[in-house]
Write a structure and sequence with these properties.
This protein has 20 helices and 35 strands. By secondary structure, the protein is an alpha+beta fold. An eight-stranded antiparallel sheet has the order 16-17-18-19-26-23-22-21, with no helix packed on it. It has a seven-stranded antiparallel sheet with strand order 27-28-29-30-31-34-35, with no helix packed on it. The chain is globular, with a radius of gyration of 28 Å.
Length: about 850
């Protein structure tokens, strides 16, 4: 396991930190653990001013979460003795704190302690530096903005003075209201999934537990549709102020209540359905408070209060300590907050709830990345988070009068989706459902365009319009619905956008010239394109993430995916049959389903300890390059407790899933480059603590064929040839069998119109050896056969006008050169090169791009640590 040196991070500030510049050793098993076991900040650096501080709780006698009413002491000062009059000292019932002000430059000290009988047991003292290079985002004390919460209703989807006067065009309102049925007759349709023919078949093939889950999932989807109708009617009242919409909303709420009670009685309830009903209860209380009877008000208050109290315990246990609790951040925290606003002035505890969520959200959100705008679990499930990200940002912007979209993450997120989920392509390709969804993040990008005038967001939408027009002209059946962003199509997101109190208007004067590639090192993803302005291009995505395999992400460090014109070519395999069934575990989220490496047939653990880092990135002219380090991705804790319990349920062992090798990975550096439009270079450096068989993996949805060191495949829009070499003898193998069969038992595939068919898998294996190098050239063609690889007289590999010199001798220093007579050169491992008659002196360990079109022709790349590595 490779360990990194970090001792002098305090002295290096926020500039790029390289491996050669620091001393000491980083012994962390996880960079972004599921549950935080360390205080923050303790690395000596902060990335944002105002900073946040948090610490681990005092557990009870059973080592469970804190004792009831546990209190903590906190102090902060530029005086290490904390005796200065400028020392901040507070007592808190929570494990985090914000000063709600900018800290001045210099060294700061902080400390926390456990408070018991008014005696403080102080813990270790920490220090950090404020350099002045931090990003700044300052929020007010809760006590200064709570007065902005209206005393009367409504107060969530609009304020009382905005009723019937919202900032939405009248034409959009008319279009939105037109299909609403204003009948006050209560609907009669059952909302429990009752299609008997389907249920009879499922009862035969599913266990009772699986059957109950299937019906509960389908019931949730049906109930959600009914809730959306109710929400639309409720908004009709807020848009017009007319009582007739209130009447219909009340009727539909009573129907939802009755159906919810039936679902609970049947045993097919799940947390989503329960959340939907609680949302409806909070909404009707807020939009029709004066129309409800006292009994109805009291019933709703008691229901919501009980739920809020239980949820608050969950939030206090997980919101601060857990890095990624998916459902909490997707919807629980938002609905808890909006319900707390609804109950404000009705329930005394609501003030504490609102305050807590304010401090927690402002500290932690967005949780999927630090500041690069990305989403570590993958784009496939990002759309489950988009409403909360927009709604909470808008609500807090309205209440605090501070612009929450001024945070770095929001400034970078449109760029992230522009590159990783471009128009016409599969969405990001890493994580659950990111292998099938297309443009599922488009409405979020449209929200960012509407709210901030971001150039990447605007051009993303322009690309959508252009492709929609092209598909229509060519008579191409659309792969995705590209509805316009308006109130009718995206009512929730559009609604909150209309409430946003700040304006970022005006046209950008600078011409939009996106680079061919972009890196998002916080989450560890690089995206490379042959052409960024059109869907007719090659898209290469590459992942090496500090977050490891958490939530809906996969065990796929240093994996890549290739799409051409939005069609997968050499691309990850398997199906999202469920979160943890055998196929999902062994043939979908497992390393062997991705374009990565196996070590003695051992894959990467499915935990945060299975992390990687994107250490180098550069793009210029016709060359884009990245280096990922997955050296720590094979040696950590194998599975989360959740996975272990599910594997027992399915009667599979951890060894069956992960592999049995005791070998430890010492090095897995992958260099990857898009050269020109259709040539990809991959160079792997591998070392273990003992001899192992290394397997280079290549996947495809379509048939893979092997011949003479070459694996080829075709998609609907392109064909590709992968030429693979090593410094050891290698054996090629091709199969279309999954490690575990694909069975659509939960109906996830059928719901999307996906039939589970075999996928293809190739492996290229060495004999047992402690170290190995793999060198791969992938040639792609959109118009017939890809260019064939040839060997030059000088021993170089040639594809078209590109030539590659590479070190493949055992024991020789790793190195390669890729060059084109006119388009430039990529260099790694050389100290001297000549290009177009110019001699360059280089550093052997570093990587360079030589771009003949640039005034400064030499682009120099060294290892740069991601923020998750530097700030903790």
């Amino acid at each position: 396991m490779k360990r990194y040196i970090i001792g002098l991070l305090i002295c290096l500030g926020l500039c790029g930190v390289t491996r050669a510049e620091v001393v000491g050793e980083d012994s962390r098993e996880e960079l972004m653990p599921l549950k935080r076991s360390e205080c923050y900040p303790i690395s000596g650096l902060i990335t944002r001013n105002q900073p946040w501080f948090y610490w681990t709780p005092k557990m009870d006698k059973n080592n469970k979460f804190p004792e009831v009413n546990m209190r903590y002491a906190f102090r902060l000062s530029q005086d290490s003795t904390f005796k200065s009059e400028n020392t901040t000292s507070v007592v808190l019932d929570r494990m985090f704190y914000s000063p709600h002000k900018l800290l001045t430059k210099g060294t700061w000290y902080w400390q926390y302690g456990w408070l018991d009988d008014d005696k403080v047991a102080w813990k270790e003292q920490y220090e950090f530096k404020v350099t002045g290079n931090e990003s700044t985002f300052v929020t007010p004390e809760y006590s200064t903005w709570m007065k902005n919460i209206p005393k009367s209703h409504p107060r969530v989807l609009c304020f009382p003075n905005e009723l019937g006067k919202l900032n939405i065009p009248s034409s959009a309102i008319v279009d939105f209201l037109r299909p609403i049925d204003l009948s006050t007759s209560e609907p009669t349709k059952s909302l429990i999934y009752t299609k008997k023919s389907v249920l009879d078949k499922k009862k035969v093939v599913l266990t009772p537990k699986q059957y109950k889950r299937f019906v509960g999932k389908r019931t949730k989807e049906i109930y959600k549709v009914a809730l959306e109708t109710f929400d639309k009617i409720s908004k009709g009242y807020l848009l017009t102020g007319k009582k007739k919409y209130q009447d219909v909303a009340l009727c539909h709420f009573r129907y939802l209540k009755k159906q919810y009670e039936n679902i609970v009685a049947s045993g097919y309830i799940n947390d989503f359905t329960r959340g939907f009903y609680l949302n409806a209860s909070a909404t009707i209380f807020d939009i029709a408070y004066d129309r409800l009877s006292d009994d109805e008000k009291n019933e709703i208050i008691q229901l919501l209060k009980k739920e809020q109290e239980e949820t608050f315990v969950h939030i206090k246990e997980k919101g601060h300590l857990n890095n990624l609790d998916s459902h909490l951040w997707q919807h629980h925290l938002r609905t808890f907050f909006t319900t707390s606003l609804t109950l404000y002035y009705h329930v005394p505890e609501a003030k504490e709830w609102v305050s807590y969520v304010y401090e927690l959200w402002t500290m932690r959100a967005p949780v999927g990345s630090m500041s690069d705008g990305g989403w570590a679990p993958g784009n496939g499930y990002f759309d489950a988070n988009k409403t909360s990200l927009i709604a909470m940002s808008v609500l807090f912007s309205r209440l605090t009068e501070v612009d929450y979209l001024e945070q770095p993450w929001f400034k970078n997120t449109a760029k992230y989706f522009y590159y990783t989920s471009p128009v016409g392509f599969i969405s990001g390709s890493f994580g659950d459902n990111a292998d099938v969804k297309r443009e599922n993040c488009a409405s979020f990008v449209a929200s960012i365009a509407k709210l901030t005038n971001d150039p990447f967001a605007k051009h993303y939408l322009q690309n959508q319009r252009s492709l929609r027009k092209e598909e229509k002209e060519r008579g191409i059946k659309k792969k995705v619905s590209r509805k316009k962003f308006n109130l009718k199509n995206q009512q929730e997101l559009y609604w909150y956008c209309s409430l946003y109190p700040f304006k970022h208007n005006g046209k950008s004067k600078a011409k939009f010239k996106p680079a061919r590639a972009a890196a998002f090192s916080d989450i560890g993803v690089v995206s490379m394109r042959s052409k960024t302005a059109t869907s007719h291009s090659t898209l290469l995505t590459f992942r090496s993430s500090p977050f490891g395999a958490t939530g809906h992400s996969h065990a796929c460090q240093n994996a890549f995916n290739i799409q051409v014109d939005g069609e997968p070519l050499f691309f990850r395999t398997g199906y999202y049959s469920s979160f943890t069934d055998p196929h999902s575990m062994m043939s979908y989220r497992h390393t062997q389903a991705h374009n990565s490496i196996l070590m003695d047939s051992k894959g990467q653990p499915m935990t945060p300890s299975s992390y990687g880092m994107m250490l180098r990135f550069g793009t210029s002219g016709a060359i884009s390059y990245a280096k990922g380090d997955a050296s720590n991705a094979y040696n950590g804790k194998a599975f989360r407790d959740l996975f272990l319990s599910k594997m027992k349920e399915y009667k599979i062992t951890p060894e069956e899933v992960l592999g049995t090798s005791d070998a430890e990975m010492e090095q897995f550096d992958r260099h990857i480059s898009l050269l020109g439009d259709n040539l990809i270079l991959i160079y792997d450096e591998l070392k273990a603590d003992r001899p192992v068989s290394w397997k280079f993996l290549l996947q495809s949805r379509a048939e893979l064929k092997y011949r003479d060191q070459c694996i080829s495949t075709e998609s609907a829009s392109a064909s590709g040839k992968a030429y693979i070499f090593s410094d050891h003898k290698i054996n090629f193998s091709v199969t279309n069998e999954f490690a575990s069969p694909a069975i659509d038992w939960l109906g996830n595939g059928a719901k999307r119109g996906i039939k589970y068919i075999p996928h293809w898998h190739a492996s290229v294996a060495t004999n047992k050896t402690k170290s190995a190098k793999f060198f791969t050239l992938i040639s792609i063609s959109q118009n017939g056969e890809p260019l064939t690889l040839k060997r030059g007289k000088d021993g170089s590999y040639k594809v078209g006008r590109w030539s590659v010199e590479v070190s493949l001798d055992q024991g020789e220093t790793p190195k390669f050169i890729a060059k084109h007579p006119k388009k430039g050169m990529l260099v790694y491992g050389y100290d001297k090169v000549t290009y177009q008659g110019v001699k360059y002196n280089l550093i052997k360990s570093d990587t360079y791009i030589i771009d003949p079109e640039k005034e400064e022709k030499l682009i120099h790349m060294v290892d740069q640590y991601p923020d998750a590595y530097k700030y903790y």
